[in-house]
Design brief:
The protein is about 5% helix and about 40% strand. By secondary structure, the chain is mainly beta. It folds into 4 domains: about 170 residues, Glutaredoxin (3-Layer(aba) Sandwich); about 100 residues, Immunoglobulins (Immunoglobulin-like, Sandwich), CATH 2.60.40; about 110 residues, Immunoglobulin-like (Sandwich), CATH 2.60.40; about 80 residues, Immunoglobulin-like. The strands form 8 sheets. The chain has a 6-stranded mixed β-sheet with strand order 1-8-7-4-5-6. A hairpin with a 2-residue loop joins β30 and β31. The radius of gyration is 26 Å and the shape is globular. It starts with 8 loop residues before the first helix and ends with a strand.
Length: about 500
Protein backbone atom coordinates (compact mmCIF):
# COMPACT_ATOMS: atom_id res chain seq x y z
CA UNK A 1 0.00 0.00 0.00
CA UNK A 2 1.32 3.40 -0.93
CA UNK A 3 1.91 5.82 1.90
CA UNK A 4 -0.56 8.69 1.99
CA UNK A 5 0.56 12.28 2.06
CA UNK A 6 0.94 13.81 5.51
CA UNK A 7 -1.20 16.67 4.31
CA UNK A 8 -4.17 14.34 4.21
CA UNK A 9 -4.49 14.52 8.00
CA UNK A 10 -5.71 18.06 7.81
CA UNK A 11 -8.49 16.66 5.71
CA UNK A 12 -9.41 13.96 8.24
CA UNK A 13 -10.75 16.53 10.67
CA UNK A 14 -13.16 17.74 8.02
CA UNK A 15 -14.34 14.47 6.46
CA UNK A 16 -16.60 12.17 8.40
CA UNK A 17 -17.25 9.50 5.80
CA UNK A 18 -16.31 5.91 6.69
CA UNK A 19 -14.27 3.80 4.34
CA UNK A 20 -15.82 0.42 5.01
CA UNK A 21 -19.44 1.58 5.28
CA UNK A 22 -21.02 1.32 8.71
CA UNK A 23 -23.21 -1.76 8.85
CA UNK A 24 -20.82 -3.81 6.70
CA UNK A 25 -19.94 -7.40 7.52
CA UNK A 26 -16.46 -7.45 9.06
CA UNK A 27 -13.97 -9.34 6.87
CA UNK A 28 -12.53 -12.25 8.83
CA UNK A 29 -8.78 -12.62 9.39
CA UNK A 30 -6.25 -14.79 11.18
CA UNK A 31 -2.93 -13.10 12.04
CA UNK A 32 0.03 -13.45 14.37
CA UNK A 33 1.06 -10.68 16.82
CA UNK A 34 4.60 -9.61 17.74
CA UNK A 35 4.67 -12.18 20.56
CA UNK A 36 3.90 -15.06 18.18
CA UNK A 37 0.29 -15.49 19.36
CA UNK A 38 -2.22 -16.32 16.61
CA UNK A 39 -5.51 -14.43 16.68
CA UNK A 40 -8.67 -15.26 14.73
CA UNK A 41 -11.17 -12.39 14.59
CA UNK A 42 -14.34 -14.47 14.29
CA UNK A 43 -13.34 -16.63 17.28
CA UNK A 44 -13.42 -13.54 19.50
CA UNK A 45 -16.76 -12.44 18.03
CA UNK A 46 -18.26 -15.91 18.45
CA UNK A 47 -17.18 -15.81 22.10
CA UNK A 48 -19.26 -12.63 22.56
CA UNK A 49 -16.47 -10.02 22.52
CA UNK A 50 -16.80 -6.60 20.91
CA UNK A 51 -13.55 -6.05 18.99
CA UNK A 52 -11.79 -2.71 18.45
CA UNK A 53 -9.11 -2.43 15.75
CA UNK A 54 -6.77 0.53 15.47
CA UNK A 55 -5.40 0.66 11.91
CA UNK A 56 -2.41 3.00 12.04
CA UNK A 57 0.90 3.82 10.35
CA UNK A 58 4.12 4.30 12.35
CA UNK A 59 4.94 7.56 10.55
CA UNK A 60 1.50 9.09 11.23
CA UNK A 61 1.40 11.90 13.81
CA UNK A 62 -2.35 11.72 14.60
CA UNK A 63 -1.99 7.93 14.98
CA UNK A 64 0.78 8.43 17.54
CA UNK A 65 -1.28 11.00 19.43
CA UNK A 66 -4.20 8.59 19.76
CA UNK A 67 -1.97 5.65 20.61
CA UNK A 68 -0.30 7.55 23.45
CA UNK A 69 -3.59 8.99 24.76
CA UNK A 70 -4.17 5.74 26.65
CA UNK A 71 -7.79 5.38 25.46
CA UNK A 72 -7.34 1.91 23.98
CA UNK A 73 -4.93 0.90 26.74
CA UNK A 74 -7.58 1.62 29.39
CA UNK A 75 -10.22 -0.11 27.27
CA UNK A 76 -8.21 -3.31 27.04
CA UNK A 77 -7.00 -3.43 30.65
CA UNK A 78 -10.43 -2.81 32.18
CA UNK A 79 -12.68 -4.61 29.69
CA UNK A 80 -10.47 -7.14 27.88
CA UNK A 81 -10.69 -10.95 28.00
CA UNK A 82 -10.29 -12.39 31.50
CA UNK A 83 -6.92 -14.05 31.94
CA UNK A 84 -5.25 -12.33 29.00
CA UNK A 85 -1.91 -10.58 29.62
CA UNK A 86 -2.23 -7.17 31.33
CA UNK A 87 -6.02 -7.43 31.79
CA UNK A 88 -7.25 -6.46 35.27
CA UNK A 89 -8.74 -9.18 37.45
CA UNK A 90 -12.06 -7.26 37.73
CA UNK A 91 -12.48 -6.82 33.95
CA UNK A 92 -15.96 -6.69 32.42
CA UNK A 93 -14.64 -9.38 30.04
CA UNK A 94 -16.49 -8.18 26.94
CA UNK A 95 -13.94 -6.37 24.73
CA UNK A 96 -10.84 -7.24 22.66
CA UNK A 97 -8.40 -4.66 21.24
CA UNK A 98 -5.86 -4.90 18.38
CA UNK A 99 -3.30 -2.51 16.91
CA UNK A 100 -2.60 -3.27 13.23
CA UNK A 101 0.26 -1.48 11.50
CA UNK A 102 -1.24 -1.59 8.04
CA UNK A 103 1.24 0.37 5.90
CA UNK A 104 3.91 -2.33 5.57
CA UNK A 105 6.26 -0.78 8.12
CA UNK A 106 8.75 -3.11 9.79
CA UNK A 107 8.97 -4.52 13.30
CA UNK A 108 12.07 -2.35 13.81
CA UNK A 109 10.02 0.76 13.02
CA UNK A 110 7.29 -0.38 15.43
CA UNK A 111 10.01 -0.45 18.06
CA UNK A 112 10.93 3.18 17.33
CA UNK A 113 13.29 2.79 14.35
CA UNK A 114 13.92 5.31 11.60
CA UNK A 115 10.80 6.84 10.09
CA UNK A 116 8.64 6.11 13.14
CA UNK A 117 6.91 8.57 15.46
CA UNK A 118 8.15 6.59 18.48
CA UNK A 119 8.18 3.20 20.19
CA UNK A 120 4.72 1.72 19.68
CA UNK A 121 5.47 -1.54 21.46
CA UNK A 122 6.76 -0.57 24.90
CA UNK A 123 3.90 -0.10 27.34
CA UNK A 124 1.20 -1.34 24.94
CA UNK A 125 -0.81 -4.06 26.74
CA UNK A 126 -2.88 -5.29 23.80
CA UNK A 127 -1.66 -7.27 20.75
CA UNK A 128 0.30 -5.48 18.03
CA UNK A 129 0.20 -6.93 14.51
CA UNK A 130 2.73 -6.07 11.81
CA UNK A 131 1.82 -6.46 8.11
CA UNK A 132 5.20 -5.98 6.43
CA UNK A 133 5.00 -9.42 4.83
CA UNK A 134 7.45 -11.21 7.10
CA UNK A 135 4.67 -12.89 9.10
CA UNK A 136 1.45 -11.22 7.95
CA UNK A 137 0.70 -9.47 4.66
CA UNK A 138 -1.36 -6.29 4.32
CA UNK A 139 -4.40 -7.90 2.69
CA UNK A 140 -6.43 -7.00 5.78
CA UNK A 141 -5.80 -3.31 5.06
CA UNK A 142 -7.39 -3.68 1.65
CA UNK A 143 -10.23 -5.81 3.03
CA UNK A 144 -11.10 -3.00 5.44
CA UNK A 145 -10.67 -0.35 2.71
CA UNK A 146 -8.20 1.71 4.70
CA UNK A 147 -7.63 5.03 2.92
CA UNK A 148 -6.38 7.18 5.79
CA UNK A 149 -4.78 6.85 9.19
CA UNK A 150 -5.77 6.34 11.90
CA UNK A 151 -8.92 4.34 11.23
CA UNK A 152 -10.56 2.77 14.28
CA UNK A 153 -13.30 0.16 13.80
CA UNK A 154 -15.63 -1.40 16.34
CA UNK A 155 -16.95 -4.84 15.41
CA UNK A 156 -19.97 -6.16 17.30
CA UNK A 157 -20.43 -9.87 18.08
CA UNK A 158 -22.89 -10.14 15.17
CA UNK A 159 -19.93 -9.17 12.91
CA UNK A 160 -21.29 -5.73 12.03
CA UNK A 161 -18.66 -3.00 11.62
CA UNK A 162 -18.76 0.65 12.69
CA UNK A 163 -16.01 3.24 12.31
CA UNK A 164 -15.78 4.88 15.74
CA UNK A 165 -12.85 7.17 15.06
CA UNK A 166 -10.29 8.18 17.70
CA UNK A 167 -12.77 8.59 20.58
CA UNK A 168 -11.56 9.22 24.13
CA UNK A 169 -14.05 6.78 25.70
CA UNK A 170 -14.36 3.83 23.30
CA UNK A 171 -16.19 1.69 25.86
CA UNK A 172 -19.11 4.09 25.58
CA UNK A 173 -19.58 2.78 22.04
CA UNK A 174 -20.08 -0.84 23.12
CA UNK A 175 -23.64 -0.12 24.14
CA UNK A 176 -24.42 0.58 20.47
CA UNK A 177 -24.02 -3.12 19.67
CA UNK A 178 -27.36 -4.92 19.58
CA UNK A 179 -28.06 -7.46 22.32
CA UNK A 180 -27.32 -11.01 21.32
CA UNK A 181 -30.49 -12.50 19.77
CA UNK A 182 -32.36 -15.24 21.61
CA UNK A 183 -34.72 -16.20 18.79
CA UNK A 184 -34.48 -19.73 17.46
CA UNK A 185 -35.29 -19.44 13.74
CA UNK A 186 -34.22 -16.09 12.36
CA UNK A 187 -32.66 -15.39 8.97
CA UNK A 188 -31.89 -11.99 7.52
CA UNK A 189 -30.76 -10.62 4.21
CA UNK A 190 -27.38 -9.00 4.54
CA UNK A 191 -26.29 -7.63 1.18
CA UNK A 192 -27.06 -7.92 -2.49
CA UNK A 193 -23.88 -8.76 -4.40
CA UNK A 194 -25.15 -9.56 -7.88
CA UNK A 195 -25.39 -7.34 -10.95
CA UNK A 196 -27.99 -4.60 -11.15
CA UNK A 197 -27.97 -4.40 -14.92
CA UNK A 198 -29.03 -7.15 -17.29
CA UNK A 199 -27.10 -8.38 -20.29
CA UNK A 200 -29.35 -8.92 -23.27
CA UNK A 201 -32.22 -9.48 -20.82
CA UNK A 202 -30.13 -11.94 -18.77
CA UNK A 203 -29.23 -11.42 -15.09
CA UNK A 204 -27.90 -13.72 -12.34
CA UNK A 205 -28.97 -12.43 -8.86
CA UNK A 206 -26.74 -12.98 -5.82
CA UNK A 207 -27.37 -12.13 -2.20
CA UNK A 208 -25.79 -12.83 1.17
CA UNK A 209 -27.94 -14.30 3.93
CA UNK A 210 -27.07 -14.41 7.63
CA UNK A 211 -28.31 -16.76 10.32
CA UNK A 212 -29.41 -14.58 13.23
CA UNK A 213 -31.10 -17.35 15.21
CA UNK A 214 -29.71 -19.65 17.87
CA UNK A 215 -30.54 -22.78 15.87
CA UNK A 216 -28.38 -23.69 12.89
CA UNK A 217 -29.93 -22.45 9.66
CA UNK A 218 -30.47 -25.38 7.30
CA UNK A 219 -33.04 -24.01 4.84
CA UNK A 220 -34.76 -20.82 3.75
CA UNK A 221 -37.10 -19.82 0.92
CA UNK A 222 -35.81 -17.05 -1.37
CA UNK A 223 -38.41 -15.51 -3.67
CA UNK A 224 -37.54 -13.38 -6.71
CA UNK A 225 -40.12 -11.01 -8.21
CA UNK A 226 -39.94 -9.34 -11.61
CA UNK A 227 -42.36 -6.50 -12.17
CA UNK A 228 -44.31 -7.46 -9.04
CA UNK A 229 -44.89 -11.07 -10.13
CA UNK A 230 -43.20 -14.15 -8.69
CA UNK A 231 -40.45 -15.32 -11.04
CA UNK A 232 -38.79 -18.00 -8.94
CA UNK A 233 -38.86 -19.52 -5.44
CA UNK A 234 -35.51 -21.02 -4.48
CA UNK A 235 -35.23 -23.30 -1.44
CA UNK A 236 -31.71 -22.79 -0.15
CA UNK A 237 -30.25 -25.57 1.99
CA UNK A 238 -27.03 -25.60 3.97
CA UNK A 239 -25.84 -25.40 7.56
CA UNK A 240 -25.02 -21.98 9.05
CA UNK A 241 -24.35 -21.47 12.74
CA UNK A 242 -25.40 -18.22 14.40
CA UNK A 243 -24.09 -15.10 12.61
CA UNK A 244 -22.55 -17.13 9.80
CA UNK A 245 -23.21 -15.87 6.29
CA UNK A 246 -23.33 -17.36 2.82
CA UNK A 247 -23.53 -15.82 -0.61
CA UNK A 248 -26.33 -17.47 -2.58
CA UNK A 249 -26.42 -17.50 -6.39
CA UNK A 250 -30.02 -17.61 -7.56
CA UNK A 251 -31.34 -19.03 -10.85
CA UNK A 252 -30.74 -16.72 -13.77
CA UNK A 253 -33.45 -14.30 -14.88
CA UNK A 254 -33.97 -14.14 -18.63
CA UNK A 255 -36.19 -12.23 -21.00
CA UNK A 256 -35.92 -9.01 -18.97
CA UNK A 257 -36.96 -5.79 -20.64
CA UNK A 258 -34.98 -2.57 -21.07
CA UNK A 259 -36.04 -1.62 -17.52
CA UNK A 260 -37.14 -4.26 -14.99
CA UNK A 261 -38.11 -3.90 -11.33
CA UNK A 262 -36.51 -6.72 -9.31
CA UNK A 263 -37.35 -7.62 -5.70
CA UNK A 264 -35.95 -10.49 -3.59
CA UNK A 265 -37.42 -11.64 -0.26
CA UNK A 266 -36.58 -14.41 2.23
CA UNK A 267 -38.83 -16.39 4.56
CA UNK A 268 -39.46 -19.72 6.29
CA UNK A 269 -36.10 -20.38 8.00
CA UNK A 270 -35.81 -24.10 8.82
CA UNK A 271 -39.32 -24.53 7.34
CA UNK A 272 -40.75 -22.51 10.23
CA UNK A 273 -42.08 -19.02 10.81
CA UNK A 274 -39.36 -16.39 11.07
CA UNK A 275 -39.11 -15.39 14.74
CA UNK A 276 -38.04 -11.85 13.77
CA UNK A 277 -39.21 -10.89 10.26
CA UNK A 278 -38.30 -7.24 10.89
CA UNK A 279 -34.69 -7.87 9.77
CA UNK A 280 -35.74 -9.53 6.51
CA UNK A 281 -35.18 -6.42 4.45
CA UNK A 282 -36.48 -6.71 0.91
CA UNK A 283 -33.87 -6.25 -1.79
CA UNK A 284 -35.25 -4.02 -4.52
CA UNK A 285 -33.57 -2.47 -7.55
CA UNK A 286 -34.29 -1.46 -11.11
CA UNK A 287 -32.30 -3.44 -13.64
CA UNK A 288 -31.45 -1.50 -16.80
CA UNK A 289 -30.31 -3.59 -19.74
CA UNK A 290 -26.74 -2.87 -20.82
CA UNK A 291 -28.00 -2.52 -24.38
CA UNK A 292 -29.19 0.94 -23.37
CA UNK A 293 -25.56 2.04 -23.79
CA UNK A 294 -24.40 0.14 -26.85
CA UNK A 295 -20.88 0.61 -28.10
CA UNK A 296 -19.04 -0.40 -31.23
CA UNK A 297 -15.37 -0.60 -32.08
CA UNK A 298 -12.49 -0.06 -29.69
CA UNK A 299 -13.08 1.35 -26.19
CA UNK A 300 -11.06 4.26 -24.78
CA UNK A 301 -10.87 5.30 -21.11
CA UNK A 302 -10.14 8.95 -20.32
CA UNK A 303 -9.47 10.20 -16.80
CA UNK A 304 -8.75 13.55 -15.14
CA UNK A 305 -7.75 12.89 -11.51
CA UNK A 306 -8.07 15.23 -8.56
CA UNK A 307 -4.92 16.12 -6.61
CA UNK A 308 -5.02 12.75 -4.80
CA UNK A 309 -4.71 10.53 -7.83
CA UNK A 310 -3.45 7.52 -5.86
CA UNK A 311 -6.94 7.18 -4.37
CA UNK A 312 -8.40 6.53 -7.83
CA UNK A 313 -8.70 3.21 -9.64
CA UNK A 314 -11.09 1.64 -12.16
CA UNK A 315 -11.95 -1.67 -13.75
CA UNK A 316 -14.17 -3.22 -16.42
CA UNK A 317 -15.86 -6.56 -15.72
CA UNK A 318 -17.72 -8.80 -18.14
CA UNK A 319 -21.13 -10.36 -17.56
CA UNK A 320 -19.49 -13.14 -15.54
CA UNK A 321 -17.78 -10.72 -13.13
CA UNK A 322 -14.30 -11.26 -14.60
CA UNK A 323 -12.06 -8.16 -14.74
CA UNK A 324 -11.02 -7.59 -18.37
CA UNK A 325 -9.33 -4.18 -17.97
CA UNK A 326 -8.22 -1.98 -15.07
CA UNK A 327 -6.16 1.06 -14.10
CA UNK A 328 -4.59 2.44 -10.90
CA UNK A 329 -1.36 3.82 -9.47
CA UNK A 330 -1.89 7.48 -10.40
CA UNK A 331 0.25 10.03 -8.56
CA UNK A 332 -0.49 12.81 -6.10
CA UNK A 333 1.24 15.57 -8.05
CA UNK A 334 -2.03 17.38 -8.67
CA UNK A 335 -4.79 16.89 -11.25
CA UNK A 336 -3.48 14.94 -14.20
CA UNK A 337 -4.87 13.72 -17.48
CA UNK A 338 -4.71 9.98 -18.11
CA UNK A 339 -5.69 8.74 -21.57
CA UNK A 340 -5.46 5.03 -22.19
CA UNK A 341 -4.85 3.45 -25.57
CA UNK A 342 -7.99 2.14 -27.30
CA UNK A 343 -8.60 -1.57 -26.75
CA UNK A 344 -11.07 -4.04 -28.19
CA UNK A 345 -13.53 -6.23 -26.29
CA UNK A 346 -15.47 -9.20 -27.66
CA UNK A 347 -19.24 -8.95 -28.01
CA UNK A 348 -20.90 -9.03 -24.60
CA UNK A 349 -22.03 -6.94 -21.65
CA UNK A 350 -19.60 -5.00 -19.46
CA UNK A 351 -19.59 -2.83 -16.37
CA UNK A 352 -17.16 0.05 -15.88
CA UNK A 353 -16.57 1.00 -12.22
CA UNK A 354 -14.43 3.83 -10.91
CA UNK A 355 -13.32 3.82 -7.25
CA UNK A 356 -12.10 6.44 -4.80
CA UNK A 357 -10.36 5.00 -1.73
CA UNK A 358 -11.12 8.04 0.41
CA UNK A 359 -14.80 8.08 -0.44
CA UNK A 360 -15.13 11.63 -1.79
CA UNK A 361 -14.97 11.01 -5.54
CA UNK A 362 -12.63 12.95 -7.80
CA UNK A 363 -14.51 16.23 -7.88
CA UNK A 364 -14.70 18.95 -6.63
CA UNK A 365 -12.98 20.04 -3.41
CA UNK A 366 -9.54 18.86 -4.45
CA UNK A 367 -9.62 19.27 -8.22
CA UNK A 368 -12.32 19.01 -10.89
CA UNK A 369 -11.64 15.45 -11.98
CA UNK A 370 -13.87 13.39 -14.25
CA UNK A 371 -13.85 10.31 -16.51
CA UNK A 372 -15.04 9.35 -19.98
CA UNK A 373 -15.68 6.04 -21.71
CA UNK A 374 -15.86 6.33 -25.46
CA UNK A 375 -16.11 4.11 -28.51
CA UNK A 376 -15.20 4.91 -32.11
CA UNK A 377 -18.23 7.16 -32.52
CA UNK A 378 -17.74 9.22 -29.36
CA UNK A 379 -18.48 9.30 -25.64
CA UNK A 380 -20.78 6.60 -24.28
CA UNK A 381 -20.93 8.07 -20.77
CA UNK A 382 -18.93 10.23 -18.41
CA UNK A 383 -17.53 13.71 -19.06
CA UNK A 384 -17.33 16.93 -16.97
CA UNK A 385 -19.34 16.55 -13.78
CA UNK A 386 -19.06 12.76 -13.67
CA UNK A 387 -16.38 12.92 -10.99
CA UNK A 388 -18.93 13.73 -8.30
CA UNK A 389 -19.55 10.46 -6.40
CA UNK A 390 -18.53 8.90 -3.07
CA UNK A 391 -16.57 5.64 -3.03
CA UNK A 392 -17.54 4.31 -6.48
CA UNK A 393 -19.63 4.81 -9.61
CA UNK A 394 -20.63 2.17 -12.18
CA UNK A 395 -21.96 2.12 -15.76
CA UNK A 396 -22.98 -0.85 -17.88
CA UNK A 397 -22.70 -1.08 -21.64
CA UNK A 398 -22.93 -3.63 -24.42
CA UNK A 399 -20.48 -4.41 -27.22
CA UNK A 400 -21.96 -5.71 -30.45
CA UNK A 401 -25.14 -7.72 -30.92
CA UNK A 402 -26.27 -10.43 -28.52
CA UNK A 403 -29.28 -11.55 -30.49
CA UNK A 404 -29.60 -15.33 -30.65
CA UNK A 405 -30.43 -16.42 -34.16
CA UNK A 406 -32.55 -19.41 -34.97
CA UNK A 407 -30.82 -22.76 -34.74
CA UNK A 408 -31.69 -26.16 -36.11
CA UNK A 409 -33.31 -27.45 -32.91
CA UNK A 410 -37.00 -27.71 -32.22
CA UNK A 411 -36.40 -28.26 -28.52
CA UNK A 412 -33.63 -28.57 -25.91
CA UNK A 413 -34.25 -29.94 -22.41
CA UNK A 414 -31.73 -30.01 -19.56
CA UNK A 415 -32.49 -32.27 -16.61
CA UNK A 416 -32.34 -32.71 -13.69
CA UNK A 417 -32.17 -29.06 -12.73
CA UNK A 418 -30.94 -28.53 -10.05
CA UNK A 419 -28.47 -31.32 -10.80
CA UNK A 420 -26.02 -33.22 -8.62
CA UNK A 421 -23.81 -35.91 -10.20
CA UNK A 422 -24.85 -35.64 -13.86
CA UNK A 423 -26.69 -33.50 -16.40
CA UNK A 424 -28.75 -34.82 -19.29
CA UNK A 425 -29.11 -32.65 -22.38
CA UNK A 426 -31.92 -33.78 -24.69
CA UNK A 427 -31.76 -32.25 -28.18
CA UNK A 428 -34.46 -32.56 -30.86
CA UNK A 429 -32.59 -31.97 -34.16
CA UNK A 430 -34.58 -30.58 -37.11
CA UNK A 431 -31.92 -30.74 -39.83
CA UNK A 432 -28.57 -32.54 -39.97
CA UNK A 433 -25.68 -30.31 -38.96
CA UNK A 434 -22.52 -30.20 -36.87
CA UNK A 435 -23.34 -29.70 -33.17
CA UNK A 436 -21.12 -28.79 -30.23
CA UNK A 437 -21.73 -28.46 -26.48
CA UNK A 438 -19.78 -26.24 -24.06
CA UNK A 439 -20.33 -25.60 -20.34
CA UNK A 440 -19.11 -22.43 -18.61
CA UNK A 441 -19.05 -21.43 -14.93
CA UNK A 442 -20.09 -17.98 -13.66
CA UNK A 443 -16.51 -16.70 -14.17
CA UNK A 444 -16.67 -17.54 -17.85
CA UNK A 445 -14.32 -20.54 -17.60
CA UNK A 446 -14.95 -23.46 -19.94
CA UNK A 447 -15.37 -26.57 -17.73
CA UNK A 448 -16.63 -28.99 -20.40
CA UNK A 449 -16.75 -29.17 -24.18
CA UNK A 450 -17.68 -31.87 -26.69
CA UNK A 451 -18.21 -32.06 -30.42
CA UNK A 452 -21.17 -34.26 -31.41
CA UNK A 453 -20.33 -34.21 -35.11
CA UNK A 454 -23.06 -34.08 -37.75
CA UNK A 455 -26.28 -35.16 -36.06
CA UNK A 456 -29.14 -36.83 -37.88
CA UNK A 457 -32.70 -35.63 -37.60
CA UNK A 458 -34.35 -36.77 -34.37
CA UNK A 459 -33.68 -36.81 -30.66
CA UNK A 460 -30.32 -37.29 -28.98
CA UNK A 461 -29.44 -37.25 -25.28
CA UNK A 462 -25.99 -36.25 -24.03
CA UNK A 463 -24.94 -37.17 -20.49
CA UNK A 464 -22.37 -34.97 -18.68
CA UNK A 465 -20.68 -36.25 -15.51
CA UNK A 466 -20.46 -33.37 -13.01
CA UNK A 467 -18.68 -35.29 -10.22
CA UNK A 468 -15.63 -33.00 -10.36
CA UNK A 469 -17.60 -29.74 -10.56
CA UNK A 470 -18.41 -27.62 -7.51
CA UNK A 471 -21.88 -26.45 -6.53
CA UNK A 472 -23.01 -23.32 -8.32
CA UNK A 473 -24.55 -21.90 -11.47
CA UNK A 474 -23.37 -23.09 -14.91
CA UNK A 475 -24.25 -22.10 -18.48
CA UNK A 476 -24.71 -24.77 -21.16
CA UNK A 477 -24.07 -23.56 -24.73
CA UNK A 478 -25.47 -25.75 -27.50
CA UNK A 479 -24.00 -24.67 -30.88
CA UNK A 480 -25.51 -25.77 -34.19
CA UNK A 481 -25.06 -24.19 -37.61
CA UNK A 482 -22.92 -21.51 -35.96
CA UNK A 483 -25.91 -20.47 -33.90
CA UNK A 484 -26.31 -21.12 -30.19
CA UNK A 485 -28.77 -21.53 -27.38
CA UNK A 486 -27.80 -20.97 -23.73
CA UNK A 487 -29.45 -22.77 -20.79
CA UNK A 488 -28.48 -22.25 -17.15
CA UNK A 489 -28.36 -25.10 -14.64
CA UNK A 490 -27.69 -25.22 -10.90
CA UNK A 491 -25.43 -27.85 -9.37
CA UNK A 492 -26.20 -28.71 -5.75
CA UNK A 493 -23.73 -31.14 -4.16
Amino acid sequence: MKKLLLAIFTIITIHASAQLPDGSLAPDWTMTDLNGTVHHLYEYLDDGYTVFIDFSAVWCGPCWSYHTSGALEDLYMNHGPAGHPNVNANTTDDVMVFFIEGDESSVAQLNGGSGSQGNWVTGTPYPIICTDGTVNNDDVTGDYQIGYWPTVYMICPDRITTETGAVSNPYGQVGNCPPLPTTTNDVRTFTYSGPTSSCGGFLVPKLTIQNYGTANLTSVDITTYVGGSVNNVENWTGNLSQFQTEEVTLPALSGLGAVSNIMITIDNPNSANDDDPSNNQNISFTAVDANAASASGAISIGLITDQYGNETSWDITNQYGVVVASGSGYGNSGPQAVVGSPFSLPNGCYTFTIYDAYGDGICCSYGNGYYTIADASGTIFGGPGSGSFTDQMSHSFQIGSLNVEENNFSNINVYPNPAKDFININIDVLTPNKTEIAVFDVLGRNVYSKSLGNLNVGEITVNINTEKLKSGLYYIHVLNNNKSEVIDVNLVK
